[in-house]
Amino acid sequence: MTCTLNRRGFLTASAAMAAAFAIPRAGFAQPAALALQATTRTLDIDGRAATVFGLINGNGTPGLILDPGQRFLLDLTNDLTEPTIIHWHGQIPPNAQDGVPDMPMPLLQPRETRAYDFEAAAGTHWMHSHVPIQEMQLLAAPLIVRRPEDLRVDRQEVTMFLHDFSFRPPEEVLDEIRSGKGHDEAAEAEMSQPAGHDMGSGMAMNGMSEMSGMSMPGMTGMQMDLNDFDFDAYLVNDRTLSDPEVVRVEKGGRVLLQIINAAAATVFWIDSGEVPGRLVAVDGQPVQPLPGTRFGLAMGQRLDIEIDLPAGGGAWPILALREGAHERTGLILATAGAIVPVILGMADDAAPAFDIDLAQEAALRAVAPLTERVADASPMVMLGGQMQPYRWTINDRVFEDRIPVTAKTGQRVEIMFHNMSMMGHPMHLHGHHFQVVAINGRRFSGALRDTVYVPPMSMVTVALDAGEAAEWMLHCHHMPHLASGMMTTFAVSA
Prior knowledge:
The protein is mainly beta. It contains 6 helices and 34 strands. It has helices at 132-135, 148-152, 170-179, 208-211, 359-363, 479-483; strands at residues 2-4, 34-45, 48-57, 64-66, 72-78, 86-89, 113-118, 123-129, 140-145, 156-165, 189-190, 223-224, 233-236, 246-248, 254-261, 268-271, 277-282, 285-292, 294-297, 302-308, 315-322, 328-334, 380-386, 391-394, 405-408, 412-419, 425-429, 434-439, 442-443, 448-449, 451-454, 459-465, 471-476, 487-493. The longest helix has 10 residues, at 170-179.
């Protein structure tokens, strides 16, 4: 089955908002399982046709939205010509339904259908193939589970689904990255660069005074590696800034941006420009509102940003800036009759590196933090590797030679991620939500997450309560790093 998305002009009426990425709500009544297909699509990217993968619901559009209390009751059909398996990123399903090859379920074969049934975790999440080259072919989609308050509040939900994209086969991209030819030396940034932590003028940095000065000493002048491949395009909802999605909004209305970084190897800054926002959730978990105009997110992470639009009409670009580079993408919020600006895909100035001193992470506070407990186990997970030879490891081992992180069900575990490499790593743990509780040894009560970014030569400690007795994946969400072996397991026993 092939779903074709043609190149479109700007939206001219509010009804047109349901174009490519307006995800249909599933109704409260759910007598039967929802349908989802892994299939192929044809996109128009800057005037060039591209055949990609996708996850298409029964209404023919990408992804799913579930209402409060609705179970994740789903039949997934593989309409591809190759095996696949889908991971429900941010959900806590039974281990057998987690979506990792042979852990324990095998790949879903072509024309095969597999049933899923579990309690859905609320928040902005996503789903994607756990075969790296397939995720790089856009086999991913939003998965949003609403809370009761989402239905009560008067605000418009706008999903921003971010991707990096190459017209070349992903196998070629990975080969070039591994060879070092895809690495742009000019994209390296100094560790001491301060501009990466500006989250907007006038921002009230919750907790920043107490958390200041946490960057590792002695790093001035040392360089971190950024952007080990220059992709052909950077997408929001399958489109570039040459033909951006224009979302019709109301004058003086409130918008909730549900932003998902589904990119294979790109960290982005979200820049709201003239309209300040409030960061209200990360990885689907509510945080105390954090004001600003620029917030960053690494691969696998999500941001919910609330924006109050001006009472007068207008058009407001919401841009995603590639860290350490000039490329950008985005969409435009516009009232009826507003003049929509033309925005180039290349900015005059390069965006800074993301959160190298963890200032953004240190400012976040969970609305409902974990109950205080003494840790039963405190394993250290060493993150290592280098660009040449291209090898990325956990505890100096690749996946095939891994030594799992172990725990028993119900134990409070504090995992310290210690990054000894010169590249940042977004670390994702399956089947659990965790709380950030320390940065470079300084304790605080931070955000609940499922994916945490660990910059070069830094330490981030997360706390969690070990769940179902099973092997759960623990890995870097930078796809070339994962493909090179930067993953292990969190082995929970009864």
